Amino acid sequence: MRQPNDDCFAQLNNKAVHLLSIREHGKLELARKLTQKLPECSQCLDDVLAALEARGYLSEQRYVEAFVRKEQALGHGLLRIKAALRDKEADADVVSDVLAMDDTDWRALAQQVRIKKFGATLATDKTEQAAQIRFLSYRGFDSDTIRYVVKNND
Do the domains 4-58 and 106-151 sit in the same CATH topology, yes or no? Predict the structure, then answer.
């Protein structure tokens, strides 16, 4: 005879595998989603997450790497990416390891973003320059990178 916990484990596992087949998830993000979808099965949640990690289906490292790649492709800077990962409660050690191994040229990315929004010519007046600075700041680039990009066209 099947135990209720066996059914809960299977339901949580199936839902988790489905969610992970769509995209990578962080451990806390997946736990939150599973708890919302199947609150009656929350007693098995830790066991399911441990089993998914053991099988290699759930990886905080892969999640952070995929998230960073996606955000870079959207033209977001390092500060915005770090803040988003902090909001998503990603493991801070994994985040710092992934970002330390990342070889992104943030100046080149900021330059691409600036050119896409404002064109290839540099700002000629202070108002236009301020608009570019605000935009790049909102995108999450640090002040040194922004200053360089707004004043240099290389």
Answer: yes
Class of domain 106-151: mainly alpha
Residue carrying the six token digits 């977001």: 76
**Nearest CA to 149 among 83, 118, 2?**
118
Residue-level pLDDT at 2: 38
Domain regions of the chain by residue span: 4-58, 61-101, 106-151
For domain 4-58, the CATH class is mainly alpha
Question: Using CA atoms, how far apart are residues 55 and 11, in angstroms rounded to an integer?
Answer: 17
Check residue 144 and give its pLDDT.
96
Q: Which of 49, 50, 31 is nearest to 89 (CA)?
A: 31
Distance CA 16, CA 36 (A): 12
At 120, the amino acid letter reads A
Task: Name the band, by pLDDT with cuts 50, 70 and 90, for residue 96.
Answer: very high
